[in-house]
Design the sequence.
């Protein structure tokens, strides 16, 4: 790991499974040659690869700490219970989760009924100076091992329970749909919150082309680091991002890929990451 991604439903038989998640994942997934609308376990002879139907119970707070009732952040971030979540999935024979990345370290949802003060973030809070929440500013030139260690640990732990993980790079909900002003002012890239002179002022500065080259470079570096952290694991898929800005869906989608590559993933994201030797010769898939 460096220092600091229908035709008819296949019949259920010995080569087809939706789980149950009673042991480690059987291996990385590939597109099924028997029915390309499905994945198959990418091990063994092509003819013997069984289809895998990915299914799970969704929750959108399964990575960070810091979500709870009320608009104000808790003095001590509320821990998420990832192991309890995996137990819930395993008991029901589920085999898939989307691992959510929330980008705001301070925000509110549901009209202020809940706070999303999410930690850890990819960058350390070193200062000098304080961010909007009174804690040290972020240094966007460095990575926080706590974020990437947790990412790797969670993916490994899920895999040991037979669960595939779609790792989300970005989410647009916070910038687009959480309450102002913290939808922007609670983001590490807001000028008050970092020591690097990066200053987004709206969703356009982060999700709509053209981007400030410095913002794009930081997004690219984060993606490379995240992929480098987990690409060797057999149960990884990638999700570029969700909740693009309404009315600019196409532009926003292209930006979420462009910020890490080009127009949608296949035109630049995957090729650029391969050029950086981040997408190793294992199986992994990227979607929304």
Sequence:
């Amino acid at each position: 790991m460096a220092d600091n991604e229908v035709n008819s439903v296949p019949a259920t038989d010995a080569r087809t499974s939706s789980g149950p998640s009673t042991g480690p994942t059987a291996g990385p997934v590939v597109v099924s040659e028997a029915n390309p609308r499905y994945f198959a376990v990418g091990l063994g002879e092509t003819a013997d690869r069984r289809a895998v139907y990915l299914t799970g119970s969704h929750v959108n707070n399964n990575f960070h700490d810091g979500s709870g009732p009320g608009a104000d952040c808790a003095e001590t971030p509320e821990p998420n219970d990832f192991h309890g979540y995996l137990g819930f999935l395993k008991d029901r024979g589920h085999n898939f989760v989307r691992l959510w990345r929330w980008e705001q370290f301070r925000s509110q949802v549901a009209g202020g009924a809940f706070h999303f003060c999410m930690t850890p973030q990819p960058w350390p809070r070193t200062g000098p100076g304080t961010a909007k929440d009174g804690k040290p500013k972020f240094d966007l030139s460095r990575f926080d091992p706590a974020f990437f260690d947790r990412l790797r640990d969670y993916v490994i732990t899920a895999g040991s329970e037979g669960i595939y993980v779609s790792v989300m790079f970005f989410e647009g909900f916070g910038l687009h749909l959480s309450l102002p002003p913290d939808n922007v002012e609670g983001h590490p890239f807001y000028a008050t919150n970092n020591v690097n002179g990066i200053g987004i002022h709206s969703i356009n500065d982060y999700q709509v082309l053209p981007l400030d080259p410095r913002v794009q470079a930081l997004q690219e570096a984060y993606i490379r680091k995240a992929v480098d952290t987990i690409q060797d694991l057999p149960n990884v898929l990638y999700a570029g991002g969700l909740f693009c800005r309404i009315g600019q869906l196409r532009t926003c989608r292209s930006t979420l890929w462009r910020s890490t590559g080009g127009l949608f993933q296949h035109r630049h994201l995957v090729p650029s990451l391969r050029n950086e030797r981040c997408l190793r010769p294992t199986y992994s898939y990227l979607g929304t």
Q: What stands out?
A: The first strand starts at residue 16 and ends at 17. Residues 1-21, 245-269, 275-283 have pLDDT under 50 and may be disordered. The longest helix spans residues 213-230.
